[in-house]
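Checklist before submission:
- one chain only
- standard amino acids only
- sequence pasted in full

Submission:
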Amino acid sequence: MKNVLRRVLGVGLAWLLRLRSQPYPFPPGVALVLAPHADDETLGCGGLLALKQARGDAVRVVFVTDSAGSPAVPGLSARRRDEALAALATLGLAHDCAHFLGAPDGRLNSLAPAEGARLTAALAALLAKLQPAEVFVPYLGGGSSEHDATVQLARVALASAGMSPRVWEYPVWAWWNPARLAGQLAQPAQNFHLKLGAVRARKRAALTCHASQCAGRPPALPSVLAALCTGPVEFYFHRQP
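Returned file contents:
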């Protein structure tokens, strides 16, 4: 019953957000998607990646953690890396569009100072090399400590690199509790949407590549969350610093 309610609320909120948002403008330049784990790139930005690639725009995806599980599951990190590359290929991206930072899964918000400094330096160096015009990070306050830590990591790394690209937030786990997104209805200037059209099917196909998350009984990725993240529209929020 809870999952039925989640889906009804999520679909309703997506409809309202679409009314209270404007079309994503496809600005020029490199777009970089920062994914805490393998599958977040597809759930939050799969349609964006496919459409940008089809337009000939430069896109890159940075996977922050090793996606090994917490506690770590032997062999899972390598499997999820392969799944991520397969998903990106389904979306039309070559393997060299992906970058893996390998931070320990489940500890992004509690890294030792030296670990955090190394991770920040690695991301700052990558940002300086790629020079993105846009950076997509998870929705802050969406209900995942790893996602919130990724947002903070991006902020510190961008400051360290002396860069100020446009930063967008994409929802993933916020759809699990759609009330977390309700506040965006009062901020229409921050809200942007992207109609997926035909690439919606490709996004769904890309998500099935993440079999370690989707194929179990029950799956590690709740089916209602997967359904809400693979709707006909993606949303991105531009919150002023």
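Reviewer check: Strands lie at 22-23, 31-35, 59-65, 98-103, 134-138, 166-170, 191-195, 233-237.
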